[in-house]
Amino acid sequence: IMEVNSNFLNKDNKGSVTFIITNSRSLSTVFCRILKNYPNTHLIIGKFCHIHVEEKNVKKSDKSYEELAKTIEDEIDSELLKGKNVIVKDVGNCIFNYFLNVFEYYIKKYNPKIVYLIRHPVPTHLSFQKMMDKEKLIGNLPLDFIKFEEKIERYESIWNLYQLYKGYVTIVEDVQREPDKTLSYVFNYLKWGWDSKYLQFKSISDEEI
Questions:
Q1: pLDDT tens-digit profile of 58-75?
Q2: Residue 28 Cα distances to 21, 59, 60, 64, 118, angstroms
Q3: In angstroms, rounded to a whole number, what is the distance separating the alpha carbons of residues 166 and 187?
Q4: Which of 28, 94, 149, 176 sits CB 3.0–4.6 Å from 22 for a disulfide?
């Protein structure tokens, strides 16, 4: 059982923690890159999912998910102590099915804002299937794991997570249609000042994430 470090909570940390919960292929990386343009912000992408894929399905680690997720906690703590805002983006079904106890611990420790980023099922499924087809050709992931991932009902997992931990819901298609207006609402929820210049950012390949 993970216990909350009350000494850490009592420190005068000026930063904040935000969780972005989404599905794979939901344009969430672009969304998070916009949020990262806010000053003094650190971005952590997909580490829960990477732990699940790499450690449990490829490396067959004998460590618990709580132990493996400690690296994420250490990174959050380190950035908070620098006074930074920390954004943690990950996949909803992975958190709900494999890291729910860890996520509950993070909720208690950091009292984070939660943004649920939802894309219409049709383009999400088509994009995800293309990604899985590519993985089959490359051979980086075991075939039985790919088949398992293809059958998961992802929207149900996010809905179940939302029922436990309410947050702000953003629709991807709204971001595409009216990015300035939609993102301003998200920033208002985070209590961050919005500026249209945040919509401009470098290619991900130009930066380390």
A1: 455 566 777 778 888 999
A2: 9, 27, 28, 27, 9
A3: 17
A4: 28
Strand partners, 14: none
Q: 89 near 45, Cβ under 8 Å?
A: yes
Q: What is the CA angle 77-107-47, rounded to 5?
A: 60
| Reported pTM | 0.77
Amino acid at 81: L
Across the range 71-81, mean pLDDT stands at: 92
21 sits in which H/E element: strand 17-22
Enter the tokens of residue 107: 């909720």
Q: Are 68 and 62 in contact (CB under 8 A)?
A: no
Residue among 171, 168, 169 at smallest CA distance from 123: 171
DSSP 204: G
Per the CB < 8 A criterion, the answer to whether 115 and 21 are in contact is yes
Cβ burial, residue 56 (10 Å; 0-12/13-18/19+): middle
- Identity of the residue numbered 75: E
Q: At residue 84, what is the residue type? A: K
